Model the fold of this input.
Amino acid sequence: MPGTRRNAPPSPAVAGSGTTAAGPARRRGRPVRTAAALGGALLALTACSSTAPPPQASAVAESITLNVGTFGTFGYREAGLFAEYMAKHPEIVINEQATQDGKVYWNDLSGKLRDGGTVADIQAVEVGYIAEATGPLADRFTDLRTADGVDPATWLPWKSAQATTPAGALLGLGTDTGPMAVCYRKDLFRKAGLPTDRDAVGRLWAGDWSKFVDVGRRYKAAAPAKTTFTDSAGGLFNAVLSGEPRQFSTADGTLDYQDSPGVKKAWDIAASAARGGLTDGLQQFTADWDDALYLSSFATVLCPSWMTGVISQYAGDRGEGLWDIAAAPVAGNWGGAFLTVPKAARHPKEAAALAAWLTAPEQQAKVFTKTGNLPSADAALRLPVVQDATNAYFNNAPTGRIYAAAARTIRPAPIGRLDGVVKAVFTDTALLDVERNGTDPKKAWNAAVRQISEQTGG
Done:
């Protein structure tokens, strides 16, 4: 998602099992942007928590400082995990080096990895860039399969597969995921004569994104004035493609979007919705899109788990209780990240142990209660604190149950290092051309192919 847009704070509290969980503060996508200002490039976390006792003078001389490079909000500081780990390991001091813009973060990190620059002991990697980490940069990262505390079976199988090289090395430990749902306005659905109960709404389009477009046509036939069915053709394209086992690249990472059944399906469905006047012609995460959320100009947003925080921020108080969440037609994933240990880390053994602890189910659940970042560990998804979570802003929707169920049924897809380039052309240029200018989808597709060829050199 564009790194230029302003940052969004966490969404309102999410209740469940006697706990609260703020909505996701770290957005996922192309390129990643933060949703909460972190301030400062370096956070000395020993000064952030009263739970971590100050080390004695003799201990300071023997301490090991672990630098942790992150982007956006991973929730470890917010959940008190850094302080907890230092209390258990008094010889460890943790410094979080936090960058707001995810694309800037990755460009800096990948450049240092290629050129032999100084890197942190732990470096977070967003899913959109993990193919570079497991491909061209694989020899710069530590294989974590045999690290203390690491069991590859901890994470959902498709999550671990994303961070595994063709040779079988596990280079990243999963943090969170972005399973897909549909956020919808109950009041607008009611005015258009559609069901409003979340289970009934989900049944309208269950199993097929084409049914989602059919519902959009029903909505348009009786739509409240100055509203459209969904926000953007680009968002619909992303949602459809997220559930497809074949996306932009082949299993070996080769870019092959022109022959991909998943890309063709996503394009046809999104272009059909755009041509049918079902989309609002907006580019997601721009100021115009934010304003349209506030003004209630569309009835649905394709909604990975982190999107709930974005909606509640920009729809504001006037939208609370009017939005709800239904299951998506097909499960898909948009977002997520990993913790890696570069081979150039100063303390690789200690860094691997910390990364394993931070991504263990118990810690993932603690992060969920503070930031809403949905766990990628299967055991964490089954915990009551996740399963019983609800979101008051979205009419007390059972977000934990909805998103955890989607996460378990996601079909894995190969990820290529140029996927983000291709996606941006389709969503931010080609489909917008269809929406705003009425361009014939075939002509827009051909223009996209030419632009992608220019940008990728092939």
Summary: The chain has two domains: 14-177+334-408, 179-333+412-456. The first helix runs from residue 57 to 62. The longest strand covers residues 173-185. Residues 1-53, 55-60 have pLDDT under 50 and may be disordered.
